[in-house]
Amino acid sequence: MAAATSIMRVHQALLAEFDGIVGRHGLTFARYEALVLLAFTRSGELPMSKVGERLMVHPTSATNIVQRLEAAGLVERRPNPSDGRGTLAAITETGRAVMEAATTDLVEAGFGLGMLDDADRDQLFGVLRRVRLAKGDFLDGETEARSAES
């Protein structure tokens, strides 16, 4: 229980810090993650169903995130030509610029882990990677994040 509680507390602390950092760019961390997801796809767009799946959120939450990004001019929604009922979310150039600026700020903040040295971060990543693999977050042999390519 102590390890699980510690993970949750660190998650809460990091999320609060990240929200503060990306908030300077008019984002929440969830919206920042959606922009990163779209920016790292080959075409800069994904079907809405994939956005929710890759962000690991309920489809309603994915829709809300994309609607807010669209209202800010950071994402566009358009019909999916390969699925007549589906919708694509596409990052705009403004969205890409905002995401890059927020990323610069997160990097400067050490992603909230500046108190750890490289060896500590590598060890932490290795331990958490085993948990993520067991939970199906990504397949063994993939990079530390799911491929954003469709």
Task: Quickly describe the structure.
The chain is α+β, with helices and mostly antiparallel strands and 150 residues long. The protein has helices at residues 2-23, 29-39, 48-55, 59-71, 93-108, 118-134; strands spanning 45-47, 75-80, 83-91.
- Count of individual beta strands: 3
The DSSP helix count reads: 6
CATH topology of the largest domain: Arc Repressor Mutant, subunit A
Order of helices and strands: HHEHHEEHH
Total of domains: 2
- pLDDT < 50 runs, ≥5 residues: 144-150
Helix content: 55-70%
Proper CATH architecture of the largest domain: Orthogonal Bundle
Specify the overall morphology: globular
Roughly what is the average pLDDT, rounded to an integer?
90
- The CATH H-level homologous superfamily of the largest domain: Winged helix-like DNA-binding domain superfamily/Winged helix DNA-binding domain
Report the C-alpha radius of gyration, rounded: 16 Å
Q: In CATH, what is the class of the largest domain?
A: Mainly Alpha
User: What is the SS-derived class?
Assistant: alpha+beta
Largest β sheet strand count, sense and barrel closure:
3 strands, antiparallel
Strand content: 5-15%
Main sheet strand line-up: 1-3-2
Q: How far is it from the N-terminal to the C-terminal residue, by CA?
A: 37 Å
